[in-house]
Design brief:
Helix content is about 35%, strand content about 10%. The chain has helices at about 20-25, 25-35, 80, 90-100, 110-120, 125-135, 145-155; strands at about 10, 15, 55, 60, 75. It has a five-stranded mixed β-sheet. The radius of gyration is 16 Å and the shape is globular.
Length: about 160
């Protein structure tokens, strides 16, 4: 007999009790419609553009191609968690604004979370590494130079304090 599947999903540090129907839902739809976490966007719907990116255990995940059941037991982070409880922006979010790395904003949450996951592992990236890190996310407005500048500008905030 297999152990019962977990009935709890952890999103932004909050435990969410799930029904059997919830576990069969598309993760992007569940986040947006059931939890009112609308930062992740529906772009292409086939996992190519990155607009729907969330983090699962600090790794980028395309939520449009994922079922809720597939992420049980993992810690999900959406863009809504990056800002502090008082509303102050995370250094990476601030860097995106300061570098002009946002225009329409549609790709921004996925781009920021992809960059955040990258910087957690690579706090001193080269320009080429930063470019590769976001290569799976599409942006049609800003061009990628400002996004890369934002990532490089935010990198010092990720260095471990000795």
């Amino acid at each position: 007999m297999r152990p019962a599947a977990p009935k709890i999903l952890v999103v932004n540090g909050r435990s969410v009790r799930l029904t059997a129907a919830d576990r069969r839902k598309n993760l992007l739809d569940f986040l947006r419609e059931d939890l009112d976490l609308t930062g992740a966007k529906r772009g292409c719907g086939i996992g190519v553009c990155g607009a729907c990116t969330v983090l699962a255990d600090n790794r980028p995940l395309r939520s449009c191609r994922t079922l809720v059941a597939d992420v049980l037991g993992r810690r999900l982070t959406t863009i809504e968690e990056l800002a502090a409880p008082d509303g102050s922006l995370h250094p990476l979010q601030r860097a995106f604004i300061d570098a002009g790395a946002i225009q329409c904003g549609y790709c921004t949450p996925g781009m920021v979370l992809t960059a955040h996951a990258f910087l957690l592992k690579h706090p001193e990236p080269s320009r080429a590494e930063a470019r590769r890190a976001i290569s799976s996310n599409l942006c049609r407005c800003t061009g990628y130079q400002q996004i890369i500048e934002a990532i490089l500008a935010a990198a010092p905030a990720y260095k471990k304090k000795e």
